[in-house]
Design a protein that fits this description.
The chain has helices spanning 8-14, 18-30, 33-53, 65-136. The protein starts with 7 loop residues before the first helix and ends in a 16-residue tail after the last helix. Helices cover 74% and strands 0% of the residues.
Amino acid sequence: MSERGSTWHGQHQAGLSRGERAADYLRNGMGSWIFVGSFVLVMVVWAAINSYLLAEDAWDPYPFILLNLFLSMLAGLQGAILLIAAKRQDAIAAAMAQHDYDTDVQAKTEIDRLMAINSQQLELLEELRALLLRSRDPRAEKEETIELPRDE
């Protein structure tokens, strides 16, 4: 399995439809300075061509009604694309939150198991210490024993 497909996010990306990948690509493109600069450049070129170069024969003379129509259509499409991408991003965030929760629950279970093992080991050490003291000196049973610290 490739490195990209081995993570949850990589597996999710691999399962996207063509439309979902297109929405993500367009969202990333529309949210860039290159898009903003290109957009402004196209509007300036449009206005320059229709105002100065073609002057009397312009296909869209001032006040640029055709340009306004295109801008309105672009705004409608951008809104829809951004909503599709945002909806997908919310689904990704929810799935990642669930994955994190599942991981936390599994980690807590493992930690609890390790703490139980640790407690058992401490009890065994205390028993071994008591046996060792008894084997050295039978009178040691009556002496105070030092308690080992416990984390409970």
